[in-house]
Amino acid sequence: MRKLVLVYLIIYSFSFSCLASLKGVQDKLYTNQFSKAKAVLDKVLSKDATNYQALFLYAQLYFSSDNKGYQIDSAYHYASLSVAHLPAEKDKNYIKGFRYGFSKTRIFQLKKDVTEAAYFSAEQANKIGSYNHFIEVYQDDYFKNLAIKHRDDLAFGEAKTKMDFISFKEFMDKYPSSNQATEARGLYEKLLFENTTKEGSWQAYKHYLDNYPEAVFREEALASYETLLFAEYELSKEPSKLYEFISLYPFNRYRNKAESLLFRSVCKDFNSQTLLNFIQNYSNSNSAHHIWQLIYGNETYADNDSIYSYFIQRFPFYPHKQQFCTDSTLASIKLYAFESNGLYGFKNKLTDSIVQLPIYYDVQEFSERLCAAASSPSVNNKYKYGFINKQFLFVVAPMYDEVYDFESGLSIVGVGDCPDGVCRYGIINEIGDTILPILYGDVHEFYDKLALVETVEKKIGYTNNAGNFIISPKFLRGRDFSENLAAVQLDTSWFFIDTNGIQKIPIFFKMVTDFKNGMSSFSKDGNLWGVLNNKGEIIKEAQFKEPVIFEDLVTKVKVEEKIEKKGKIKYSLIEYLLHIDGSMEKITD
C-alpha cells in the first residue's frame, strides 16, 4: 500500500512539475525566448512524445512570427499532433492542463489559425506549387477546396495560354476532378483533332483514327478519311483504280458510289455481252445481282416461251431461278383490264375468268411483262402511276405522273404537270432503275438503239440504253434515227448525222424526210422535192411536188409539166412511177 502511494506521489509530482515547466515555456514564448522554450519542450517530449500540452506549445513556437525559426508547416504539424493526442475533457490530465490554459478550444483555435495563415500565404504567392503544397499538407475541407479551386484556375489558365492539346492533356491527367475538366476535355479533343489532321490528307485522318480510338471526333475523321481516300481513287477515272478501291475498302461509305462509277465507266451501253463481261471481270463488285437483272430484262422482255427457253440455254448460271420460273410460267397468260364501280381489275383472255379483283384506280394494258397502274385516287384529275407484274405486285412504285408502255425493257416516264404543263421526262427500266434522269423537256422512243432527248434549254441530243449521251445535246431541232441516220439542225438548215454524231451527208437542206429503204427526199426551197440515197448521192434533183416516200422499191410521184395545146400553154401534174434506182415511168390513163 505504501508503495502504491509512493508511486502515485511520484507521478503526481512529475505531472505537476511538467505542467509547471510548460507554464514556464509559455512565459518564455511570450518573452521571445524561443531557444530556451524549445530546450524545455524537447526535454518533455523526449520523455512523453504524446504530451499534447508540449505539442501545442511547440506549434505556438513555430507559429510565432518573431521566431527566426518560424515554420508554418511545422506549426501545423505539431498543432495536429496536439489535437490527435488531446484527452477526453473528463480526463484528470485534461482537467489539470485546462487549469494551466491548455483548453480544447484554444488548441483547436491554434490549428485553425495556422491553417488560415498557411492558406493566405499560398494565396498571396498565387502559384500552382504553393496551392498544391497547401492541399498536400493541410487537411481543412473549406480552405482545401478554396486552394483546389484557385490551383485549378491557374493551371487551366496556363493550359489556355499555351493552347495546345498536350497542355490540356496534362491538365486533365493532373486534375481529373477539376471544374474545368469538361471544358479541358473539349479543347483537348478539338485541338488534338485539328493538330493531327491539319495536313488535310486521308493519311492524316487515318493516323488520327489509328492512334486515338476513343477520340471524340472519330466520326468526323472517319467521314473525311473515307471522302478523301475515295476522291483520290475517283480522280484517276480509271476502272482499275475504282475496282482496287472496292476490293481494298469494302466498308467505305463510298463503296456504292464507286460501284456505280465503275459500272458506268465500264458499261457504256447495257447490251447483254457488255454486262456479262463486267460480271466476269469484276468479281468483287456487289453489282452482280443488279447486272444479272439487267441482262435478264434485255433478253426476256418479249415475254414468250421461246425467249425464256433461249435465255436459260444461253445463261445457264443465271442466279435468280425462281424469278425465271415464275415469269416463264406466266408468259402464256394473256390479261386484259375490266372496270367495275370505277375500279379496274384483270381477266384471263383465254378463260375470261377474273384473276385480279378491281382494286386499281386506273390501268393501261400490259406491255411486255408489265402494266401501268394507279393504286390511289386521282388528285386534281391526276394519278400517280407505277408498274405491276403478272402477279399484280408493284415492281415500280407509283410515283410518276405520266408513263408510256415498255419497249425493249425501257419506259419513258414523266413527273410534273404532265402532259399539258411543265413536265420533266426520263427513262426507267423494268426493275425501277432510272436509266436517264427525269430532268428533260422531252424524250422519244429508241430508234437504232438511240433515243432523242430534248433538254429544258431546247437542245437536242441522243442517248443510248444506258442513259449515256452518245450525241451531246447541241442541235436546235432533230428527228428520230431511221436506218442509222437522223436529220438535225444547227441553224436553219437540215443535215444528216450517223449514230456517232458525225455528219454523214455533207449537204444542207431546207426540208428533209427520214430515210426509208435507203432513200430520203429533200427540198432546197420548200416547194420542190428531190431524192437522195443514204450515201449522200442525189438520185433525183428537186422536181416533185410532194415529199417522196419509198414504202417499197417503187412509189408514185407527181411532176408539174408544161403542156402546149392548140397554141396555149398550161401546167399539169403528171403522175410517174419512180423506181428506187431513179428511173421513172409515166402512168398512162
Keywords, please?
18 helices, disordered N terminus, 4-stranded antiparallel beta sheet, 589 residues, Serine Threonine Protein Phosphatase 5, Tetratricopeptide repeat
Outline:
With 589 residues, the chain is of the alpha+beta class.
Give an overview of the whole structure:
With 589 residues, the protein is an alpha+beta fold. Among the domains are: 2-125, Alpha Horseshoe (Serine Threonine Protein Phosphatase 5, Tetratricopeptide repeat); 141-196, no CATH class. It contains 18 helices and 26 strands. The strands form 7 sheets. Strands 4-5-6-7 form a 4-stranded antiparallel beta sheet, with no helix packed on it. The protein has a 4-stranded antiparallel beta sheet with strand order 8-9-10-11, with no helix packed on it. A 4-stranded antiparallel beta sheet has the order 12-13-14-15, with no helix packed on it. A hairpin with a 2-residue loop joins strand 1 (335-340) and strand 2. Helix 6 (104-125) runs antiparallel to helix 7. The longest helix is centred in the N-terminal third of the chain and has 29 residues, at 2-30. The model is unreliable at 1-14 (pLDDT under 50).
